[in-house]
Amino acid sequence: MRPQKMKIYLAGIVFVVAIAAPGCQGGQGESIATDFDNENVSTDTDATASDAEIERAVERELRADPAVRPQQVDIDSRDGTVTLSGTVGSLLERRHAVERTGMVRGVRAIDDELEVTDLNIPDDQLQSSVETALLRDPATDLYDVDATAQDGIVTLAGDVDSWQAKQLAEEVAAGVRGVRDIENDIALHLEAVRPDEEILQDVEGRIAGDPWLDADALHVNVEDGHVTVDGAVASVAALHRAREAAWVAGTESVDVSAIRIEPWRSLPDQREAPRESDVLTDDEIASSILLVFDQDPRVKDFDVDVSVDDGDVTLAGEVDNLAAKAAAEQDARNTSGVEEVHSEITVRFPLQFSNEELADHVRAAFFDNPYVNSHDIEVRVVDGHLYLKGLVDSSFERDEAERVARQVNGVAMITNRIRVWKSHERLTEDWAIEGDIGSLIFWDTRIANTSDVHVSVDGRIARLFGTVRTNYAVQAAIEDAYMGGAHDVIDDLVVYHR
What is the rounded distance in angstroms from the CA atom of residue 348 to the CA atom of residue 180? Predict the structure, then answer.
């Protein structure tokens, strides 16, 4: 057992799934938990939630998330299959709504019928914007990928060397304002054929290092590079993580159709005492991180050193862009057994753009982004150091601006002085915030032992206390606290995984 030191988290933490989290902006201004009593739902492994409870939980999740306009989204659950319908403002918002729904306990499948508003951007202009975005990103700028657009539908074609690179190209294109959907026809050209035994070892290593997954509950088979995974996971989001873990060097295809979703099953951080297979040694943690680095297209081309001491990770090395540094740090945080991440990674980028050219690239990226586009953000660059200043409606938008800027080729450092309009801060009583946070934590499949996690709120400062089995669950609980309306968070949770 290794208790954590008390920490106070100020607004602006980063989402555990690579999306910027809200800081003090928790929702739309009213309580989101007053219609539900968590004690009415059993936490037994074979328990089920009613469709009405699932619908309310998904609605609560989306209402708390400032990246989604829940008033435009209709939610219907039938035997745990949730249908999302209605209209959203961007493809990013649509994907965000689906992703957050997949984290809700009890959801077994998602039928995405959301439609993205047509901004009537001419096809040639949209195509140019997507191609520019791909060239502007330091990881996709050298990809052999072309884009075409028709009626807001963008088709990507070309060749890349990994499934992750294909997904990253789609992610960059999806972030362009006006894109309603994407047809990803990029072909995979694997660098070399690998023995099935090596592929199996890497897939099992990825699963063991992923805090969403229970390695004892999943079985992997590899035949001629074709990977099949069966067993059980706790959520739709975890199912996607299992699929991602199966795509390692040499993988030809992945089949996860036999994986069962068991929302109330026992996960590693829910057991009374951690089993030997639940606890990773420092060497295993380091190997898990390096394995993720090898598959991350933002990181794999750089020599990032990983050292681990009793779960505390130190990253060192040199990269040529800020997005790679951030990706390496997040990859490490998202690995099982990691307590803390200390980054000594340096960003050294040859100055190939003038200050004004780089500032123009950042402004263009802001113009293309559906969340940042409507705000007047001042941009100034001095030798690769980017300074941002302005006013936005939420901490999510402030953090999104920084995320977008970080992915512009040539940005080596960011000073973010963007402020949030105080008139947009959520005004809710402490008792309501406490209830909102409790409900979000209860339905969050990243935190299996929710009955052991407690919250109190005083002056909009949330204190989290109790026990969890993984540091990843701590990060998820902190994220839920901000989404529930907390201005600051005190972390007194104790991690028992070591």
Answer: 36
Which stretches does DSSP call E strand in 287-350? Answer: 304-309, 312-319, 340-347
Instruction: Kindly state the tokens that stand for 30.
Output: 């009213």
Burial call 336-348: b when 16+ CB within 10 Å, e when fewer? bbbbbbebebebe
Residue 353's identity, in one-letter code, is: F
E strand map for 49-197: 73-78, 81-88, 109-116, 144-150, 153-160, 181-188
Q: What is the enclosing helix (H) or strand (E) of 218?
A: strand 218-223
Give pLDDT tens digits for 318-349: 999 999 999 999 999 989 888 889 999 999 87
Does the structure show a pLDDT above 90 at 26? no
- Report the alpha-carbon distance of residue 202 to residue 209 in Å, rounded: 11
The secondary structure of residue 88, as a DSSP letter, is E
All residues at 6 or more sequence positions from 421 whose CB lies less than 8 Å from its CB, including other chains: 391, 392, 393
| 8-state DSSP, 117 | -
CA distance 87 to 73: 7
Tell me how many degrees the CA angle 137-92-299 measures, rounded to the nearest 5: 35
Whole-angstrom distance, CA of residue 398 vs CA of residue 23: 9
Kindly state the tokens that stand for 205. 């290593």
Residue with tokens 């403002």: 89
Tens of pLDDT along 239-278? 999 999 999 999 999 999 999 998 876 544 444 444 555 5
- Helix (H, G, I), strand (E, B), or coil: what is residue 490? strand
Beta bridge partners of 389: 378, 417
CB within 8 Å of 150: residues ≥ 6 apart: 123
